[in-house]
Structure formats: C-alpha cells, structure tokens
Design brief:
The chain is mostly helical. The protein is built from twelve helices and four strands. The protein has a two-stranded antiparallel sheet with strand order 1-2. The longest helix is centred in the C-terminal third of the chain and has 25 residues.
C-alpha cells in the first residue's frame, strides 16, 4: 500500500518544489509565434514525472526489463531538459536520441518479426528489424513532442495508449505489472489536472516530458509484443498510437509536398487545425480523446471479428480518411 499512498504525495511535493525553482533554473516556456499561451509557464511536467517514476521504480518494480526501459527513458529526459533550458537545435537532440535508441536495441528491445497472422507465415525481419525499430522509436518519440501543442493533448494521448496496452493485454489473458502502469498513469492524471484545469499553477510537459513519455511508450510497445513476453498481438500496436502516427505522417507528407524541411516545427498539426477553426482548448482535448478512443474501438473490433490482416488494412484506410478530413478542415482556415 506504500506506493499507492506516498507516490501521489511525492509528485505533488516534488512538483511544488520545482515550480518554485522553475524561473531560477530556466525551466520556463515563453510565448512566441508558435506558442500562443498567456504568460510564462513552468516546464516542469517532464522532470517531475520522470524523476518520480524513476525513484519509485527503484523500490517497487522488480522486472529488470521494465527498469531498463525506465533508465533508458531517463537519458531521453536529460536531453529534453537541456533542450527546454537552452533550446538546442533539433539535429543535436536527434543525434543524442539516436545513441540512446541504439543502446535500447543493443539491449534487445527490437522488432524481430511480424507474426500472429491468420493467412501468412511469420516474417523474420533480420537486419531490417533494427532499422524498423529505430524508425518506430524515433518517430513515436518525436510525434508525441509534435502533438504537444495544446493543453492535455500529449498527456491524454499517452494515457490512452497505456490504457490500450492494459486492455489488449487483459483480452489476451496476459499477466500485468500493475505497479508499472500505476506509476505512469497516476502521474499523467495529476499532470492533466494541473495542465488543463488550473490556471494559477499551470505547468507544461516541455520537450523533456513529451519525449520522455514518447520514448517510454515506444519501448513498452515493442517489449510487450516481443516473442519473449507477448502481452498481446503485435498488430494491435498501431491502434495504441493511431492519432500521433496519423498526425506525424500527415504533417510530414504535407511538408514534403510543399518542399519544406519535415523536421522543423510548424503549425500544421491536428490541434493547430482545430485552434485555427476556433475550437477552445477544452473542446480540442475532449475531441481528440474521443477520436483516439474511436480509433482504439475500431481497431479492436476489426481485429477480433475480421482478423489481424484486415485490421492493418483498416488502419491504412482510416489514415486516408483522416487526411481527407484534415485537408478539408485546413482549407476552411
């Protein structure tokens, strides 16, 4: 019972200390042409969550693989904190992220095969598995950073993704390390409250938080669907992160078509489109939550009643529908 009582208390106390020190240590987000919030907001969400999860995992998580995932994610957090304070160039951030991703791959967190299809044999990926793993981790880590532009969107996206992992695992009758999920979900719930529903003590995740949670989510999705543990069918991974993947791919495609650098930030993400169409931040948050839940339900239903091959086809089909609706919404601006 210790973890359930003292963990939320630690988060609130540690967060309060960082909040009071945020201005002195440079963890402050100031408005600019892309960031249109009012006033200077402490960027302590990432470091508060990362440190809290790390410290309690030391004492309450006895799975060496999950501990490795957390330790590796802390390295991503450090890079993010440096970026929050000094605003380093994206190329430097990507370089250090790449090193940490390679460390995770060397440890054994890798997509080795595409399996559990009804009509196809397992596909061994070999060296391509390393490339695919690298792309997936880097892509998801930064897609969560890209989508972190409206109150609660990033945190709710990660929360729904982890809830999907739990749901898909339960359906597959897999054992769940509840303490691990408790550490992540309780923090995200507390963060959403202070990020979205308070004004006096408002905080942001920052690049440190969005990349930390994006990285830990990406490693979990690969680990939980690996052949060694396989909490659930690997094909269901795409339905755990549908919205950030759709958003990332649609934005990259638009930038390439417009002959722009696909790695530089802009205001073409889904939450930006909704903001430009005069939706409030609360409306955006609940709309995107409902959209993510809808994607999850569609993915699970097609997987159960039609099969893994067709659920992937449905994923591609929904992406085309998503692009069309987003394009029409952008045209109205």
């Amino acid at each position: 019972m210790t973890i359930f009582i003292f963990y939320p208390i630690f988060i609130l106390v540690f967060g309060a200390v960082l909040y009071s020190l945020s201005n002195r240590i440079g963890l402050i987000d100031k408005p600019d042409f892309r960031k249109q919030h009012k006033g200077n907001i402490p960027l302590i969400g990432g470091i508060t969550g990362g440190v809290s999860i790390y410290l309690f995992a030391l004492f309450f998580i006895d799975d060496p693989n999950l501990n490795f995932i957390i330790y590796c994610s802390m390295l991503i957090l450090v890079i993010g904190v440096i970026d929050d304070i000094f605003d380093i160039h994206f190329s430097y951030r990507l370089f250090f992220q790449s090193i940490i991703i390679l460390i995770a791959i060397d440890y054994g967190i890798i997509v080795e095969e595409l399996s559990n299809f009804n009509y196809f044999q397992n596909i061994q990926l070999g060296f391509f598995g390393i490339v695919l793993t690298f792309i997936c981790i880097a892509g998801l880590t930064n897609s969560l950073n890209f989508i972190d532009g409206s109150d609660g969107v990033c945190a709710s996206t990660v929360s729904i993704s982890f809830l999907n992992i739990i749901l898909f695992s339960l359906i597959s009758n897999s054992e769940i390390n509840w303490k691990f999920f408790y550490l992540i979900l309780v923090y995200l719930f507390i963060f959403i409250i202070f990020n979205t529903f308070t004004s006096k003590y408002k905080i942001f995740l920052g690049d440190s938080g969005s990349t930390f949670f994006g990285f830990i989510l990406s490693l979990c999705l690969i680990y939980f669907t690996s052949s060694n543990v396989e909490y659930f069918n690997p094909i269901l991974v795409i339905w755990c992160v549908t919205l950030p993947v759709y958003d990332l791919l649609s934005v990259i495609l638009k930038r390439i078509i417009n002959k722009q650098n696909p790695f530089l930030p802009d205001r073409n993400h889904i939450h930006h489109t909704l903001i430009k169409n005069n939706y409030s931040k609360i409306q955006i948050l609940f709309f995107l939550i409902l959209l993510q839940v809808f994607f999850s339900i569609v993915g699970l239903i097609t997987y159960i009643f039609i099969g893994p091959e067709f659920t992937f086809f449905n994923f591609v089909l929904l992406f085309l529908v998503y692009i069309i609706f987003k394009y029409r919404a952008d045209e109205k601006i």
